[in-house]
Design a protein that fits this description.
heterodimer; A: 246 residues; alpha+beta; Fumarate Reductase Iron-sulfur Protein, Chain B, domain 2; two-stranded antiparallel sheet; B: 594 residues; alpha/beta; FAD/NAD(P)-binding domain; Flavocytochrome C3, Chain A, domain 1; Methane Monooxygenase Hydroxylase, Chain G, domain 1; 5-stranded mixed beta sheet; 16% strand; globular
């Protein structure tokens, strides 16, 4: 009988300049029944191999640091419990579709640039001074964008997106959700500027509507819905321009 | 070594650092603002704040009420002029965040909604469901991208401050992704590096909360103030310490012991009511609630969780599923994902865990530290608003109010300061880098730093917990001295350059041990009970004659810190009886306090 308190983790290791290619390393974790994958990795790092590299911080699925492939699916390591995974070895790999910097650490710079490219801030309809107080925004107006504002930038959707896998320049689901978060905000007037940013060939039309981005999202942000709304918006916008040119 | 010249350098890009960066660039758009963080800005621990941010907005509330609640809550160890400024600026800052897009929860007519919070007389806590810190952080980060003058150094770990001619003039950074060092030269520097809760075992904090900025300022001769005051949050996940927001109680949640009894009524917090009553029962302050838990545990009236921790129940069932989904979705998700409990039909086992450092780098009302050119804001600082116990929803406001002040003051200083003395500073940076490399490459089969970290966290919990004894605090001080010696002889598993997180954690441990020493020695020396510092060894009472004073821990290298005391600024509120529940209401009616 296998000991349920012991779990085998097969972790993809890679050290640049030393390893020719990534390869799996195997570790056994004791007292694993109630551990998250993150806690198992911490236990390995603290007691077996301090060189194992991975990002983490909050432990409560809100900082977005610890996205990785767990048994082949993009997950947050902190909120994935070992007892919820099928018996047998657990494979842990860096997020798909990103360059590996070391072990489970991938490059995040490209993703940050995408966020920055879509004007991720309020471009006010009617600027107000502090003395004028807050804008009014009804619960219904809040609901129009609120779920898109819940994105924690964990990049699981990028690891799942086949289009991003083929074309790293594709704006991708997370940035599209953020774009929709501001375009849907009753205080904002930046819609046109943002739509212009996603008209190009790496923009919204690259999406082939697989919808897996929404399935893997740990925060139910539904980026696929954001992408679709923007396809509609983008098509409508394109059509209007066509008319204007005529 | 690469050298980058900035006008203002900000270390830390959470709520305070980002707010400072935006304020600095708005104050003078011609300046270059360097913003360095050891993580991507949206990973900063501000992200985990849940309940909300206090700012007076209702017609029947007043700044005076917020002032009184804060000063009483801090057991009169607050700088009252700073509190007065803080409460006056909190609401304007919340409105500013609203203009920048923060998705504050609303009333049906579109106005800002507020919720009740512990120790607050009137509801004044602005909230974005139970993800308030998350939304504040992302709003600030996203807004900061509008300003190209803010040059970010994401994932850049600070090794040391550069100080010459008695003035802070930059810092040396290590890039984890390359192992390369960068010197940032700047005419003023802001520390916004957050707290240090990870020096304790059970805590609500993210792994990055290791007191880096506190230790750096401290080592350069800046005193750490009021470090003995460490906040235990009363409702956390047993074992991991993950936070269940005070908003659970603000929305009407009950705390019950193993018999289903609302035990807070036994600790001067009653009367019991079914709907929330401000400053009463579950809406008492955090120090009192954590202390009540400890007493219940001693009486054998707590539960034991499967992982062996004591706990009480946070009962949210009567709030109903719809309200939980609207107001506490993150809390419900945490309970379901991590504990397999739906709070809509099962109470959540909770217990106190370390949450917040009331003390920190001493600053004046303008966030200036005693070291010229060095400013500090947010949890790493002690600007003086929290005293001996912080009220929930006063820390997010602190980030924005004093983040802005720090940004503006650092710009003012930078514009008046002479040019930096590059050669001297670059030499210092090279020396700091060499020291870090020596630690990385140290041979000799020494211990793993993880062993030391666990011992540190255990001794802090034992000696500097909810209730304290002189003998145990002394043991903690002795243990920390021993750990500091052992830390010199550690050997890393990893001697490489790229993403050597073994190395970073070892440097962080050094920061943590210094901060822990400041906490333990400050605690040992304070021979009274006040706020979050409660003793059981003959000093059970508050002693205003001797200890209505801020502790100041001064770094003394390998030796223990030297503790001195500084005055507390009293303006309007003379120290009185700190009471909640029925007695608090009676005293307030009599005008005996407030």
């Amino acid at each position: 009988m296998p000991d349920p308190a012991k779990r085998e983790l097969r972790i993809l290791r890679y050290q640049p300049g030393v390893d020719a290619a990534p390869a799996f390393g195997t570790f056994w974790v004791e007292n694993a029944e109630n551990l998250s994958v993150l806690e198992a990795l911490q236990s390995i790092k603290d007691t077996l191999d301090g060189s194992l590299a991975f990002r983490w911080s909050c432990r409560m699925a809100v900082c977005g640091s610890c996205g990785m492939m767990i048994n082949g699916a993009p997950k947050l390591a902190c909120s994935t419990l070992l007892r919820d995974l099928p018996p047998g070895p657990v494979t842990v790999e860096p997020l798909n579709n990103f360059p590996i910097e070391r072990d489970l650490v991938i490059s995040v710079g490209g993703f940050v640039k995408k966020i920055e490219s879509i004007y991720p801030y309020i471009i006010p309809k009617e600027p107000r001074t502090i003395a004028q107080g807050p804008y009014l925004q009804t619960p219904a107006q809040l609901a129009a964008y609120e779920s898109f504002s819940d994105c924690i930038n964990c990049m699981l959707c990028y690891a799942a997106c086949p289009q991003f896998g083929e074309n790293p320049d594709f704006i991708g689901p997370g940035a599209m959700a953020l774009l929709q978060r501001y375009n849907g905000d009753s205080r904002d007037a930046g819609r046109q500027k943002r739509l212009d940013a996603i008209h190009g060939e790496d923009g919204v039309w690259s999406c082939t509507a697989v919808g897996i981005c929404s399935e893997v999202c740990p925060k139910s942000v539904d980026p696929a819905n954001a992408v679709n709304q923007n396809k509609t918006n983008s098509a409508f916008d394109f059509f209007l321009r066509f008319l204007r040119k005529e | 070594m690469e050298i980058f010249e900035a006008d203002v350098l900000i270390i830390g890009a959470g709520g305070a650092g980002l707010r400072a960066a935006i304020a600095a660039t708005l104050a003078d758009p011609s300046l270059t603002i360097a913003l360095a963080s050891k993580v991507l800005p949206m990973r900063s621990h501000t992200v985990a704040a849940e309940g909300g941010s206090a700012g007076v907005i209702q017609a029947h509330d007043s700044l005076e009420n917020h002032f009184n609640d804060t000063v009483h809550g801090g057991d009169w160890l607050c700088e009252q002029d700073v509190v007065e400024y803080f409460v006056s600026q909190a609401t304007p800052e919340l409105i500013q965040l609203e203009h920048w897009g923060c998705p504050w929860s609303r009333k049906p007519d579109g106005e800002i909604n507020v919720r009740a919070f512990g120790g607050m007389k009137i509801e004044r806590t602005w909230f974005a469901a139970d993800r308030s810190g998350f939304h504040i952080l992302h709003t600030l980060f996203q807004t900061s991208t509008k300003y190209p003058q803010i040059k970010r150094f994401d994932e850049a770990f600070c090794l040391d401050l550069l100080v010459a001619d008695g003035r802070a003039q930059g810092a040396v950074l290590l890039s984890p992704s390359t192992g390369a060092f960068t010197t940032i030269l700047a005419r003023s520097v802001i520390l916004a590096t957050g707290g240090a809760g990870r020096v304790f075992r059970q805590n609500t904090n993210g792994g990055i909360v290791t007191g880096d900025g506190m230790a750096l300022a401290y080592r350069h001769g800046v005193p750490l103030r009021d470090m003995e005051f460490v906040q235990y949050h009363p409702t956390c996940m047993p074992g991991s310490g993950i936070l269940f927001s005070e908003a659970c109680r603000g929305e009407g949640g009950y705390l019950v012991n193993k018999d289903g009894y609302r035990y807070l009524q036994d600790y001067g917090l009653g009367p019991v009511t079914t709907t929330p009553r401000n400053k009463t029962m579950e809406l008492g302050p955090r120090d009192r609630l954590s202390q009540a838990f400890w007493q219940e545990e001693r009486k054998g009236r707590t539960l034991t969780t499967p992982n062996g921790e004591s706990a009480v129940h946070l009962d949210l069932r009567h709030l109903g599923l719809a309200k939980l989904k609207e107001r506490l979705p993150l809390i419900r998700g945490l309970a379901m994902e991590f504990m397999g409990i739906d709070p809509a039909d099962t109470p959540i086992p909770v217990r106190p865990a370390v949450h917040y450092t009331m003390g920190g780098i001493i600053t004046d009302i303008q966030t200036a530290t005693p070291l010229a050119g060095l400013f500090a804001a947010g949890e790493c600082s002690s600007v003086g608003i929290h005293g001996a116990n912080r009220l929930g929803s006063n820390s997010l406001g602190e980030l924005t109010v004093f983040g802005r002040v720090a940004g503006e003051q650092a710009v003012k200083f930078a514009k008046e300061a002479p040019a930096v003395v590059a050669n001297k500073l670059v030499d210092q940076a090279k020396a700091a880098a060499a020291k870090a490399v020596a630690l990385r490459d140290q041979k000799g089969g020494g211990e793993r730093h993880s062993v030391l970290r666990k011992e540190m966290a255990a001794t802090m919990e034992r000696g500097c917990g909810i209730y304290r004894l002189g003998t145990e605090m002394q043991e903690t001080c002795d243990k920390l001295a021993e750990l500091k010696q052992r830390a010199k002889a550690i050997t890393l598993d990893d001697h490489s350059d790229v993403w050597n997180t073994d190395w970073l954690a070892a440097i962080e441990l050094g920061y943590q041990l210094d901060v822990a020493q400041a906490m333990a020695h400050s605690a040992l020396e304070r021979k009274e009970s006040r706020g979050a510092h409660q003793r059981l060894d003959g000093f059970e009472k508050r002693d205003d004659d001797k200890y209505l004073a801020h502790s100041l821990a001064h770094y003394r290298g390998d030796g223990p810190p030297e503790i001195s005391y500084g005055p507390v600024k009293i303006t309007k509120s003379q120290p009185g009886t700190r009471a909640y529940g029925a007695l608090g209401e009676q005293l307030e009616k009599d005008g005996t306090h407030a």
